[in-house]
């Protein structure tokens, strides 16, 4: 695949964007309730029986269970309060079908409660699940807790002095997942890092990120610190919460293609542009190739959510804005109230690209997209619609979440998707109720065949 990209990059001069829209039809909808919890392993530190102690003002510890009400970023209550008893199933940030097990999926859970400072008691997990599209339920078949017993992580972790050394949201922010023959590779936002795990979730290697020969870091990289002078800057090019969000594995298994979530900064500290970098990592050599491609964001989109191949050259990318909720229930401009969406969802799409066709600047060709705010539902398969306009068409379904971070091909006609519910800080389905983790099966044969 790498040779094909290089050859065609010189031969084509194509526009980076296309605006052909393909229809998506709901074929299944399954829910994992927001307050779903799992117990930590028996050998985990006892304090991990409770999570979410550090989410209050100043990240000071709060021990009283349920004493910190969940709120959205625009001030709407979500109905779930922290600290929580147990570890939240939480925010699905990556999905891949389980090889050889039809109907089962690997899911990577988010880092915990949104940032490094408040997630030191949130354990990092990979789940194996089976959604039942008929009943609308999701069976949890297995949970793998990430750990570093062989001390492969080169910096201090939250559980540094324990024997099992379970990893938490203080250590990494896993956002993408690729199962491989000897375990998993995950993409992290904090470093950003690539992390190799064995089948039991134990770290085998942590890889620094290089772009054009330079190590690039986010402000949450463990080597960075606040300078002694308030006028001194801290050098970084990756935005906070803007590291590796999607990560595709070439179908031949030879290369990883991690994708930065948001536009980078230049070395001078200015925004690089309204595009996203796709990097290339050679798995056999265990090193960056030095090559990168560019993905042009759609108007109104501010970030990507996931990235997965559907064949040797074509791949799907989630594009999204920072809004949530039905735009028909938008608050009057400038107002933030519990009965309306102050920043509703307007751009939520899956874009099909061809990595073998790039223009002179390295921008990949866009083939077309699906609009996740206008999914057809002629059979009424939606389990819930949430709060939306009274005159909303009954045969339409939307995925109006602030963070939609999982998409993968199922077969020649279907794709599967899931949302990150940012427990308990997102409420895009209902105005004042924390979002569930939702999985949807979409029938999109024309989209998957487009070239």
TrEMBL record:
Residues 87-422 form the Phytase-like domain. The keyword Signal applies. Pfam families: Phytase-like. InterPro entries: Phytase-like_dom. Residues 1-18 form the signal peptide. Keywords: Signal. This is Esterase-like activity of phytase family protein.
